[in-house]
């Protein structure tokens, strides 16, 4: 039987939530992860690259190539998220193995991404970006033919705010006039981290006419609906069958989530658990191809949006949207139970594959 799995390239900056995105991309039977590229963001490039290698080792998939990409934005200073992800980018566990292999040397992640995507039949491959957008903006600028060749582009980034959804982003902020307002972003009162790090790259992607109609944007307005509560963390630790003792792999992911939960409570006051942003961008691909998952994201109204990005001033990095006939899909809601079922199913497969029973 012909391979019907959908080819996916993951551009990421691991990152606690990126680790779950890698797990989902590797272990869902409908997907074929054809490559991973890394970018600065949650930590410096050397650390996000090492983290990607470590996560792949932990889940038993060291055969997947890792391509180091951009270490900084094209025209801005580099920024990281130590207050959320720690010094390493994956603080919180001693169970994450050190990688046995080095990342690919003498490679060009931009060209490697292009080559891998163009090697797939037209309109089959997806590009998923869960970090800053420097790598993929450079690729589309240098190799514009990739945009038309892709089936889809899924991005975790941005925040709309207002009444787009009804989620809590953190404490209110006070403007220069002393007025309090609801927070929109997680890096500034207005901007989400991935977009804020390189808003120029983000703007170039959202204004590319070959990409807009095939782009899905997973914003904080959605990800804050999917928090890893105490109940969810316990389910992922012990599995649905209450496995005792929990497997080593599950303990590792649990410890990562506990660290993530503590930093989100300390920084944003979120007491219900951390939002698991990045795997939602992988789940977008599954919802587009798997009939059982079509309802994962509600698209009943077929809303589409033009997206612009503020690139200077107090609101630098803010994503602004206006309604459009054709444009970017920005889901407002997600079937939370189905999402966690996906994560648990892939965790169980990784358990079986790695044989970490203790």
From TrEMBL:
Gene Ontology molecular functions: purine nucleosidase activity; uridine nucleosidase activity
Domain of life: Eukaryota
InterPro entries assigned: Inosine/uridine_hydrolase_dom, IUNH, Ribo_hydro-like
Gene Ontology CC annotations of this record: cytosol
SUPFAM superfamilies for this protein: Nucleoside hydrolase
Gene3D superfamilies per UniProt: Ribonucleoside hydrolase-like (3.90.245.10)
Keyword vocabulary terms for this entry: Glycosidase, Hydrolase
Pfam family, one: IU_nuc_hydro
GO biological process, one term: purine nucleoside catabolic process
UniProt record similarity statement: Belongs to the IUNH family.
Protein's UniProt name: Uridine nucleosidase 1
Annotated source species: Knufia fluminis
Source taxonomy: Eukaryota, Fungi, Dikarya, Ascomycota, Pezizomycotina
Gene: URH1
